[in-house]
Amino acid sequence: MGSIVAIFLLYHLWINKDIDLKWKLILLILATISAFIYNGIGFYLVAIIVYFVLKWHKVKIR
User: pLDDT (tens digit, 9 = 90+) per residue, 25-38?
Assistant: First the structure.
């Protein structure tokens, strides 16, 4: 359940270009918290966060 919530939040962050950076960070933190609450230590989430950060930086640089 937590992984579904986390993935949904991260996907929503990525497709919605109009959200402020502040809200993106808040949603990212919520996704992290939900994954930890439901799944204990979510190693998979580290990979998702790294992917998200790298993708965001590439778009920002462009």
Answer: 777 777 777 666 66
Determine if residue 2 is left, alpha or beta; phi over 0 gives left, psi from -120 to 50 gives alpha, anything else beta.
alpha
pLDDT at 53 over 50: yes
pTM of the model: 0.38
Query: Residue 34 CB: number of other CB atoms within 10 A?
Result: 20
Q: Residue 1, SS3?
A: coil
> Residue 18: which residues within 8 A CB-CB, separation 6 or more?
none
- Between the alpha carbon of residue 58 and those of residues 4, 19, 20, 25, 40, the distances in Å are 25, 17, 17, 17, 31
Other beta carbons within 10 angstroms of residue 21's beta carbon come to 9
C-alpha radius of gyration, the chain, whole number? 12
Tokens of 17: 């270009």
